[in-house]
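Reminder to self: tokens first, then the designed residues, so the page reads top to bottom the way the pipeline ran.
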């Protein structure tokens, strides 16, 4: 393991150095931004993204940018459907293929793949992930670490290439305390991101102080069992169900009241309608963000100004591996409507209604709940649209007799024995303090992360590369 393992605590956070990786769809002055694509290779921006400025001000050293699924998994067929996609999670033309560390050729899940793997191995103290639908929670669970997908608006998306409607920036770390400390640093209002004006408190909470071993005592936790199926490919399996049963019993013993089921009132309608509605909104947002983003570039060496330039460049550049990896997702973006037309606004209103009143808020109000729990693999679709926070905590590992499941491209293993999986805590917007308490108590009661080791370990010590005089 690397020799410097600094532990960040609330009392010493400011001015303390720790190591962090941040995902490469964030602009930084020293490292540029590529989103994994050769399109932005060598492109520069005039300043750091606001959350990066906060990290640096807090004394964080940014070690580098991690590999991501190119364009946050939107490049290829069926964006986000890992069993059908024509590209692969954690692959980008710039970075190559990131692998998970618990199984040979493990699918690291995406799109914050490198952030998950780097954290799992201790290459960095923690990392930043960026999520619209599962991009923090998915890779965090398969890297056996903590992932916090904050409420949309709690962290600034200034100079982050992501949907401004549904995207969020959050911490990935090996312990809940570390993740909470990092959230404390990056959270808060930002003049460059209007969504942050919705933060309902004056000062960002000291999140790490909510790491309370007794937090589950008296908490009302619901299980939205009717939402354990995301679509045909993503449904809770027997292992997930056994994991939920175990988790519920542990929480009950810790003094929580478990309400099971606490179903999403209109989940079937959400399943029926949300695919088309979310596609319409998501593609329109992506197109708009692309157009906005290029205006921030100081240098734009490939002279890419819109989505059609981007598609053309991707098809022509050999490192982009076209057509073996198609551009169906980008073509979807190219055909998208403008972001502000009524058909997009109507789609958003309808799907929001189903996810909020018909989903998380509906279930929580009906049963007077503090939080919900779900298997992490099916926990994000409603939460994405509800702009709600999700935290994943390691829950277990696939057992010996698990059959192998390949990804769509058949180059990575999605599922087999020893692969880690997580438990998600979901809550109402801006209730991170509660979720952090429950997730921490659960982490401390179970300590699942320590039960299985990665199949690879880094061999290089920081002092080997930093030199003898570095003081390390
Ligand atoms: C991306 O991952 C590959 C495979 O692990 C690695 O060789 C490469 O250095 C990584 N790239 C970056 C930019 O971290
Ligand atoms: C921890 O949680 C318990 C149970 O909710 C509560 O009684 C206690 O005051 C909390 N401790 C701290 C330090 O917040
Ligand atoms: C969802 O779609 C199925 C299949 O088309 C249909 O049978 C069912 O009634 C629909 N449910 C709702 C609540 O719309
Ligand atoms: C990906 O899709 C393209 C276009 O349909 C096809 O030419 C290519 O063979 C596919 N790649 C793989 C690995 O299936």
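Designed residues (472 positions):
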């Amino acid at each position: 393991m690397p020799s410097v393992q600094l532990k960040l605590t609330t009392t010493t956070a400011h001015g303390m150095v720790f190591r962090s990786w941040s995902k490469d769809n964030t602009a930084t002055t020293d490292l540029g931004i590529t989103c994994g694509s050769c399109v932005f290779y060598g492109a520069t921006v005039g300043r750091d993204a606001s959350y990066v400025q906060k990290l640096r001000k807090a004394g964080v050293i940014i070690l580098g940018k991690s590999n991501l699924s190119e364009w946050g998994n939107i490049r290829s067929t069926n964006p986000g459907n890992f069993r059908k996609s024509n590209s692969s999670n954690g692959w980008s033309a710039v970075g190559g293929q990131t692998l998970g560390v618990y199984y040979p050729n493990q699918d690291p899940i995406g799109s914050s793949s490198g952030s998950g793997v780097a954290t799992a191995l201790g290459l960095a103290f923690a990392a930043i992930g960026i999520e619209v639908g599962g991009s923090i929670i998915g890779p965090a669970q398969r890297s056996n670490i903590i992932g916090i997908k904050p409420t949309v608006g709690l962290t600034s998306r200034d100079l982050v290439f992501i949907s401004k409607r549904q995207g969020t920036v959050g911490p990935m770390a090996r312990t809940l305390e570390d993740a909470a400390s990092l959230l404390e640093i990056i959270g808060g209002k930002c003049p460059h991101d209007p969504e942050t004006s919705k933060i309902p408190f004056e000062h960002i909470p000291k999140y790490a102080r909510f790491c309370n071993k007794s937090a589950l005592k008296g908490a009302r936790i619901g299980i939205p069992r009717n939402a354990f199926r995301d679509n045909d490919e993503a449904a809770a399996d027997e292992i997930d169900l056994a994991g939920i049963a175990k988790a519920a019993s542990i929480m009950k013993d810790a003094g929580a009241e478990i309400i099971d089921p606490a179903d999403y009132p209109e989940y079937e309608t959400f399943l029926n309608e949300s695919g088309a509605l979310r596609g319409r909104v998501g593609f329109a947002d992506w197109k708009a963000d692309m157009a906005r983003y290029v205006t921030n570039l100081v240098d734009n060496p490939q002279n890419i100004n819109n989505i059609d330039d981007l598609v053309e460049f991707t098809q022509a550049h050999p490192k982009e591996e076209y057509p073996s990896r198609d551009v169906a997702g980008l073509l979807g973006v190219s055909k998208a409507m403008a972001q502000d037309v009524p058909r997009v606004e109507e789609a958003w209103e309808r799907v929001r209604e189903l996810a909020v009143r018909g989903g998380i808020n509906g279930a929580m109000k009906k049963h007077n709940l503090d939080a919900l729990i779900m298997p992490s693999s099916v926990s994000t679709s409603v939460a994405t649209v509800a702009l709600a926070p999700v935290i994943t905590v390691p829950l277990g590992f696939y057992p010996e007799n698990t059959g192998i499941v390949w990804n769509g491209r058949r180059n990575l293993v999605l599922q087999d024995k020893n692969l880690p999986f997580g438990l998600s805590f979901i809550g109402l917007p801006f209730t991170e303090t509660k979720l952090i308490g429950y997730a921490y108590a659960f982490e401390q009661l179970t300590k699942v992360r320590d039960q299985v080791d990665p199949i690879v370990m880094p061999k290089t010590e920081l002092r080997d590369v930093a030199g003898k005089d570095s003081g390390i």
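The CA atoms of residues 132 and 167 lie 4 Å apart.
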